[in-house]
Amino acid sequence: MMKVSQAILFELNNVGVINMYSEEEPYERGAKPYPSLPAAGIYLTICYSATIGAMPSPFQDPNGIFMDLFKSYMPDGPKPSALSFAKVFLAPLILGLVVVAFWINIIFFGLGDRSFKRDVVEGATNPRSVKEAIEEKKEEMGSWTTYTKLATVLIIVSIFVIVTRRPMIFDGWYDVLKRKPCGVSVASIAMTIVFFAVPANYLFCRYYMCTEPSKVGAAPSCLGWKTVNANTPWGSIFFLAAALASVYSGIHSKFYTLLIDTFVRNGIDKAACFWYGSLVGMILTILSPATALAKYVIPGMFLAGYKLESGPGALAVPFAAALHNQFMLPCSTPANTIIAGWGNLRPYQFLLGGIVPTICYNDSSYNGNNFTLWPVKPT
């Protein structure tokens, strides 16, 4: 959707309907120009939609990890019901939608008294030019080529492979293979290899097709490395890798252990658990992807709640709910990282998450002592 949005903005920019780039001077001469605020609003809408869309689903990470922890570490306790999950994640979802609507419309789409309001109004009052530009481009592109058809099929297959990896409501191919753990990246890498391998025209099967190739020669692949290298925001990818490294640094430096021990030592009550859990979750997701935090930090949060006699969810549930404030910075989620890199968005434009309220549900009815959590072990 990011590349589709960029293509649309590029065409509308060419016909003068909207300004795709701002007049702000880039940080160095010859650097990629910054997007205009309306363009940044469109890019951030994609980021926020990806994050908010995953909130109510128990099958998307970090929710899937959170449910696994309930099942793994509380074998004799209550399983998270649909109502519990609704209380934990639907409230931030609804409040987040409201905040996103106001944030994007006021800051980026010109509802406030800003100079760029004129650009938005001009585009809105000229729908005929927009429609004409779209129709003109459609005619120019012509009918679908073999490459377009193959790429569309492979994209659909990619989505299918990722969705059926481990849907949790039935056994996916990950469960059937029963090999070493593999995440969504494994499916993505596999499909990328297929994109590199499948030719982009009929030349490879000229003897099996009625249509003769338009040009005799080597068949190019659907995806070439030069294209990938030129369009990949490598700086942002390294930024994401550094964000992941910060999670593992917290493990090996025993920072999370110290944090959890501090909560236990001070004997915080359930109300304090709510505020500290929400605050820590929100701060950490500024620095690192929420999925990694859910996997490596939530187990210790469960144990802290158990030691505090407030129930294992006292800290873990608000912490998990706060991880959904992934709009905070480009490194909070891979989708943000890639979109920020392609759109040349800057970190301060992601600061919506700081004002998204986190409402969560605590269930302290489980007081068992028959489970062990890492990295903090019960004494």
Counting DSSP E segments of at least 2 residues, the number of strands comes to: 0
Distance between the ends: 50 Å
Task: Please identify the structural class as seen in this structure.
Answer: mainly alpha
Would you tell me the overall average pLDDT? 76
Which percent band covers the strand fraction?
A: under 5%
Order of helices and strands: HHHHHHHHHHHHHHHH
How would a textbook summarize the main sheet? none
The domain tally reads: 2
Low-confidence runs of at least 5 consecutive residues: 74-78, 353-379
Membrane topology: Multi-pass membrane protein
Organism: Drosophila lebanonensis
GO cellular component, one term: plasma membrane
Protein name: Protein I'm not dead yet
What does this structure look like?
GO terms for molecular function: citrate transmembrane transporter activity; succinate transmembrane transporter activity. By secondary structure, this protein is an all-alpha fold. The chain is 59% helix and 0% strand. Helix 2 packs antiparallel against helix 16 (334-343), helix 7 (146-163) packs antiparallel against helix 9 and helix 14 runs antiparallel to helix 15 (313-322). The longest helix is centred in the N-terminal third of the chain and has 27 residues, at 82-108. The model is unreliable at 74-78 and 353-379 (pLDDT under 50).
From the structure above, extract its key features.
16 helices, membrane, 379 residues, succinate transmembrane transporter activity, mainly alpha
